[in-house]
Automatic annotation (TrEMBL):
Family statement drawn from the similarity comment of this UniProt entry: Belongs to the CDS family.
Compartments (UniProt record): Cell membrane
Keyword match Kinase: no
EC number(s) on file: 2.7.7.41
UniProt pathway annotation: Lipid metabolism; Phospholipid metabolism; CDP-diacylglycerol biosynthesis; CDP-diacylglycerol from sn-glycerol 3-phosphate: step 3/3
InterPro entries, sorted: PC_trans
Species this protein is from: Segatella salivae DSM 15606
Keyword terms: Cell membrane, Lipid biosynthesis, Lipid metabolism, Membrane, Nucleotidyltransferase, Phospholipid biosynthesis, Phospholipid metabolism, Transferase, Transmembrane, Transmembrane helix
Any one GO BP annotation for this protein: CDP-diacylglycerol biosynthetic process
Lineage: Bacteria, Pseudomonadati, Bacteroidota, Bacteroidia, Bacteroidales
Residue spans crossing the bilayer: 7-26, 32-50, 62-82, 115-136, 148-169, 189-209, 221-241
Catalysed conversion reaction: a 1,2-diacyl-sn-glycero-3-phosphate + CTP + H(+) = a CDP-1,2-diacyl-sn-glycerol + diphosphate
GO MF terms, alphabetically ordered: phosphatidate cytidylyltransferase activity
Name of the protein: Phosphatidate cytidylyltransferase
């Protein structure tokens, strides 16, 4: 068996396991929180390891990672109704203050870069993943308890996966015009349009069946199509942002934790923009819809 075939098999197996773990984890509120707390930690750990390879950069990987995971769990605690007291964020704030003050004693040549990359890990990774809790948990009709709705977070990832599949297929068949050649030469406008069409078709189908079941109905069919479009656009931007990040660092993959698929950032780059954009979109519908 050739190396290319072996790599293809490994990639397929890892991809299938990844989807199974993701879907299985999102099915239950406790496993969803646990799964994405781990994902948040692994992604921040990977990110800080990459930036620490740059000259004169020395981000505290351990405390920065713990802070990001804690932030995710604190948002989950608020959204699930475990607590409504924002004092839960005090340990997170103290850890951030410590990371700033700590630079006073490390005698780094460029502490501003350490601060910048530390905060970037929180804004770029911890905050977007934390917004999954906003998608997944909503206040019940009684205004006191919270209920878990796996449909929204699951569909965001399904839309991202479908967009990748549709973009690859249509790009391979029809791709001629480069989408962003400076950052990602392989992407084409034809691929992006093909991925978007596939996602919006699936979104309309989900909307149709969701509205057929009053218990599950949350968005109109048009609302679902709009969500699909938002996920496609911001997911593509998220992919391009990570490509720019890797190009700046001069690396091909962000890591090797997922054989055949690269690192955590490689797997979740699109979601880091699509998740917060979806939250903004859904709240905008509530406010102006």
């Amino acid at each position: 068996m050739s190396d290319k075939m072996k790599n293809l098999i490994v990639r397929a197996i890892v991809g299938a396991l990844f989807v199974i773990i993701m879907v299985g984890g999102i099915m239950h509120p406790h496993t969803m929180v646990a799964l994405f707390a781990v994902i948040t930690g692994l992604t921040i750990w990977e990110f800080t390891g990459l930036v620490n390879q740059r000259e004169n950069i020395n981000v505290n990987r351990f405390i920065t990672t713990i802070a990001g995971v804690y932030f995710f769990l604190a948002v989950a605690a608020i959204r699930t109704g475990i607590t409504s007291n924002f004092v839960i964020f005090v340990p997170y704030l103290l850890s951030i203050v410590y990371l700033f003050i700590g630079e006073l004693y490390l005698k780094q040549e460029d502490p501003i870069n350490d601060w910048a990359y530390t905060m970037l890990s929180q804004l770029y990774i911890a905050l977007p993943f934390s917004m999954l809790n906003v998608l997944a948990f909503e206040q019940a009709a009684n205004g006191i308890t919270y209920q878990y709705n796996m449909q929204l977070p699951l569909c965001v990832f399904v839309f991202l996966w479908l967009n990748d599949t549709g973009a690859y297929c249509s790009g391979s068949l029809f791709g001629k015009h480069k989408l962003f050649p400076r950052i990602s030469p392989a992407k084409s406008w034809e691929g992006s349009v093909g991925g978007a069409i596939l996602v919006m078709i699936v979104a309309a189908i989900i909307g149709y069946f969701s509205n057929a079941n009053c218990q599950m109905s949350q968005l109109s069919i048009t609302g679902w199509v709009g969500l699909g479009f938002i996920v496609v656009v911001f997911g593509t931007w998220g992919d391009l942002v990570e490509s720019l990040f890797k190009r700046t660092l001069g690396i091909k993959d962000s890591g090797k934790i997922l054989p055949g698929h690269g690192g955590m950032l490689d797997r979740f780059d699109s979601s880091l923009m699509a998740i917060p954009a979806s939250v903004i979109y859904l709240y905008s519908l509530q406010m102006f819809g």
